[in-house]
Amino acid sequence: MTREILAIGPRSPPITGPGLKNRYIQAGLEAHGLDVTWVNTLETHPRTVLEILSETLSYDAYLLSASTKVRLGVAPLLATKLRSPDVHGALFPAGGEFADELRALPGPVRRFYLRTFSAFDGVYPQTDGLSDDLRGLLDDSVQVRTVPNLRPLPESGSASERPSGALRLAYVGRIKESKGIDDLLAAYERASDAGADVVLDIYGHFLPDDPYEDRFLDRCSRLPGARFHGKLPNEAVIPTLQDADAFVFPTVYDGEGFPGALVEAFAAGCPVLATEWNFNADIVTDGVDGRLFSPHDVAALSDHIRALAADPALLSDLQDGARETGRQYSVERVTASIVEHLDASGWDLPEPTVERSEAVATKQ
Fold first, then answer.
1. Which end of the chain is more exposed for a tag (fewer CB within 10 A), N or C?
2. Would you tell me how many other CB atoms lie within 10 Å of the CB of residue 80?
């Protein structure tokens, strides 16, 4: 029976999107009775990762949950062990470009890595679209199943009142041009000029020496009701979003996969106004838990903002839908599906105990 797993990849702290996902995966698997030793690549130099792996190849179960550099560096070493029928491996590719990255490799290198990744029992991307892409690349023996991002649900997901009457919009995430922030500010200004009673709160941080910072701060400061608050501590994101009415996600970032911010918004009961970009339409159901619009379509985003400001019943329905969607991404539900997938791919895992589940839940 498999009880001990060696896991490799970023694990927060420090806070990153993939790092948070991995922290919650570890907590959920430990709740199922597994002992997970995590090699945190956020704190470990890649050469040190290889040294650690060379010393710990006595494991018979491995979990690789990482982005490109770590994935390409570590997978070949693991594959030498995974070809044994008694050794198991699971790959959780971070980001939304894994299939495209494989296709872009030169022919002999691509074939090498396709054989390497096909040594894993299962590959678990975050969206159905990426799963479909990978099924066309990897060996048929590899189980490919979608495992979405995940977050702990708040104790209370009820919508708060709107004492001022203004629609409260929020954005949480990195502040950079490719996240569509200029489109957000333009749509907010357009909706306000058209008479919508709306305020906008923006939380996030800038890349070092990003020239966009000065331009953003200047424009934001000149918009009445638009407020920039800086970076939020991770533990404050969902509580802060519980005080908002809707979350705006106008991204056009090429590497967008399954953003944790969308899961946090749904957990908080915030419907999401998002671009139809990369895999957003796999995550946001238009008219159920949010609204979708074309990239850079400022007029459409402005119309969605005005509609929510003018129609409390519509907003309430979308908030109910967002809370329902958020339950799909709870730590308990997602890690239960991971355990089911691992069992189906040949892992022999123990049943969770009530005592262990309760103890691990307090660590999340």
1. N
2. 12
DSSP state of 7: E
Contact 295, 276 (CB under 8 A): yes
Calculate the alpha carbon distances from 167 to 174, 221, 278, 299 in Å. 23, 19, 28, 18
Q: Which residues pair with 36 in a beta bridge?
A: 5
Angle between helices 234-241 and 260-267 (to 10 degrees): 50
User: pLDDT tens digit string along 19-73?
Assistant: 999 999 999 999 988 999 999 988 877 777 777 777 777 899 999 999 888 899 9
pLDDT for 356: 45
Q: What is the tens place of the pLDDT at every residue in 74-95?
A: 999 899 899 999 999 999 998 8
Question: Which residues, at least 6 apart from 27, have a Cβ–Cβ distance to it below 8 Å?
Answer: 331, 335, 360, 361, 363, 364
| Structure tokens that stand for 77 in this block | 């070493």
Which of 291, 283, 289, 292 lies closest to 316 in space, CA to CA? 289
- Residue 169: CB partners within 8 Å, gap ≥ 6? 188, 198, 199, 200, 201, 244, 245, 246, 247, 248, 305
Structure token digits, residue 329: 């991404």
pTM (two decimals): 0.87
How many angstroms separate the Cα of 267 from the Cα of each of 160, 329, 359, 360?
14, 8, 22, 20
- The rounded distance, in Å, linking the Cα atoms of 176 and 159 is 29
Q: Which positions ≥6 away from 353 have C-beta within 8 Å?
A: 33
Q: How far apart are CA 162 and CA 117, in angstroms?
A: 50
> 38 - beta bridge partners?
7
